[in-house]
């Protein structure tokens, strides 16, 4: 029987991914205009995501990471095709990235109603990866802390964090709900927990890994009640 439910934040409770994808669209358009040799949007994103993933795996996530990966990608194309590195262009790249933080994402549909109902019967934990300042601003803006017994913000989700957060409950009584196969689903299954994948309309390649084992996927939060019944 499930006693604790551990929720991710971005693209599980709030609608974050679309803003990052919007800025990436602006960035890839700028790259294609400056570097016609760079190929398609998908080709450019492959280069970008290479810097993106390496940075997070080495240093964890902070708010400078998103614009920094754009600047690194721009420099890569300058070097690859023999273009001069222009400081003003690097500033424009960075601005595209920093602008993702100019607004706080909205809650996803049914977030409050679902948490309010679940709070009556389960211990709820919020477990999110990201820059602490940015993540806490989102949480406070939506007053989400009122529904949770614990809040955890980490620079990179790793299995030992999840294991520590779930104590003292046995793994089979813990449900983990999130959009990241890497950060939530895979470690939850490895620990013997019940994992539920919330499918995102704007997936992030960093989250995509191979996961051994089966797990349910939901599109909307109220589907959890069917899984818990």
Structural class: alpha/beta
Q: What name is given to the CATH topology of the largest domain?
A: Rossmann fold
Q: Kindly, what is the distance between the CA atoms of the first and last residues, rounded to a whole number of angstroms?
A: 10 Å
Domain count, please report it: 2
Q: Runs with pLDDT <50, length 5+? A: none
CATH-assigned homologous superfamily of the largest domain: HAD superfamily/HAD-like
Query: What's the helix-strand series?
Result: EHHHHHEHEHEHEEH
Shape: elongated
Counting H and I runs of at least 4 residues, what is the number of helices?
A: 9
Per DSSP E runs of 2 or more residues, the count of β-strands stands at 6
The main pleated sheet reads as:
6 strands, parallel
* Strands in their spatial order, largest beta sheet: 3-2-1-4-5-6
Mean pLDDT: 93
Summarize the entry for a quick read.
This protein is an alpha/beta fold.
